[in-house]
Amino acid sequence: MTKFRSIYMGAPADIARGVRGEVANAALISHSRQFARALHRVTDRVHCHVGSCLGNSTMVLGRTGNIVIDTGDCVEQSAMQQQDFRAVSDRPVSALIYTHSHYAMGSRTYVPQEREGQVPVWAHKDMMRTLARTLSDVQAALTRRASIQFGLYLPDQGEDAMPSHGIGPFLFELDKYQPTTGFVRPTNLVGDGDEAEIDGVRFQFFDAPGDTYDSLLIWLPEEGIAVNNVAWPALFNIYTLRGETFRNPADLLRGLDQLLAMRPRHLVGVHGLPINGEKEIRRCVTDYRDAIQYLYDQTVRGINLGMSADELVDYVRLPEALAQSRLTREFYGEASFHVRQIYNGLMGWFGNDTVELHRVPSDDRAVRMVALAGGPQCMQASVEQALERQEYAWAAELAGYLVRAYPECAHYRQLKARGLRAMGQATSAANSRAWYLTQARELEGSADTSRIPVNFVNAALVAQFPPQTYVNALRFRLDPALSGAGASSVDLRFTDVGFACRLLLRNGVVVLAPVDDASPDAGIDMSFSLWASLVGGEATAHEAAGSEAVRLTGDARLGRAVLDAAQGK
């Protein structure tokens, strides 16, 4: 038995009702009030906008215009930011700066097409490479999982609404707008220690990996202001439930130590309210970086003692003083997730029990577990008893066996949903709440996560990247059965940009190669702009194949398969 009783297994939870009617952890509801839409004065020159999206936007008054740091996740959000900034200054934007790739998708508001190239856009030297990897290889999975994590399948009002997302109010407000991506490529790339004078204001930039490896720590020495993406208003997500490459805490600590060395008088975050006062900033950031180091060090200590990830979750607990500090509460993710990710990042998926090497398949195990319990009626009784004891995690786990063994039974799905909803209401972590409630609603039939509620990638965004970025995604989209009868090849040409490559289909894989003199089995000639529209969901493969804008030669079946894959079919 575990020595800690969690809110998921019978420990009391303080649950309240918020302004949207949401039934949620009272501390999360209280914490969420800070994200009300407002423009916060940091100094006479610097103002921080909170509340129009998950990330903040900061305006620095330059000599001739306004320098804007971060632009939200869509142009609808940046338009709100711009509207509020104009209460302070209605001068034109003289420069954009991206702290990292997450909040650059509203930049078209500030740099309309006719001004592109006239407004400098500053970013980390690795930003485009980071974006390309995220937006091509695992785009579909990340879009679906991000939609779950940020509550896009949940209602805006009622018991299952979100109070906030722990580090900001929301990703999108789908009841008010459908988000439009408007990304402007950076024109000025910077690295660690680079300095620049931008519209009369001195800036210094430092590498500070956070939730991405293209994150910048921005120092305004004349103002004593640090703009950062490493100190959040909630415990940092070493692991995010939507999925991500390993965020090594050792890299994060370097950025936090750099931040402390600056001794800022004002701390402006990508998330949360600005913090003023050198002493308070030092206290908050020190506790924050020490909490992260504690999780890392004690996880490593446990690994060296021979513990598995499951055992480490019980073993590694933040000391109360660190767990309850101003910036370290579990309002976004949970410390247990981060412990598991540190283990996985350092050791991989295998623990110590060799049973893990070849587990009984999930559906088979469910049937056997229900039989072991004495049949479905006995298992159902155990679920109901666990719910009565408020052991919601145990109830959901047992009900999960019933759902797998009897997938057609709505009552068993309802039982599991009751356990998941109770955990979602009890947790202080917004990520956990969104996942629990979304899966509960899916079991009840009121959510469908196979349907993507927003399109993060549009034609304009695709066009900002080299053609090969999204052509490479065909490796993951084309059916491997296409080469089941033997190897074949397709030449793909974008006639408007001079791009050509050969897709070699063999042994179930797709290999991108240069075009040579050998005749391919099929050919596709089209414009890159039409390809971008296919990838961005603004054209269909059926329409494209039947139009004069696409020339198909050779095996039309192969050509159409490539067009379908580009569309994501």
Automatic annotation (TrEMBL):
Record keywords: Hydrolase, Metal-binding, Zinc
Pfam families on file: Alkyl_sulf_C, Alkyl_sulf_dimr, Lactamase_B
Parts forming coiled coils: none
Any Gene Ontology biological process: dodecyl sulfate metabolic process
One term of GO molecular function: protein dimerization activity
Domain (Metallo-beta-lactamase): residue spans on this chain: 54-271
SUPFAM superfamilies named among the record's database cross-references: Metallo-hydrolase/oxidoreductase (SSF56281), SCP-like (SSF55718)
Domain of life (superkingdom): Bacteria
SMART domains: Lactamase_B
Family to which the UniProt record says this protein belongs: Belongs to the metallo-beta-lactamase superfamily. Type III sulfatase family.
Protein name: Beta-lactamase domain-containing protein
Source organism per UniProt: Cupriavidus taiwanensis
Lineage summary: Bacteria, Pseudomonadati, Pseudomonadota, Betaproteobacteria, Burkholderiales
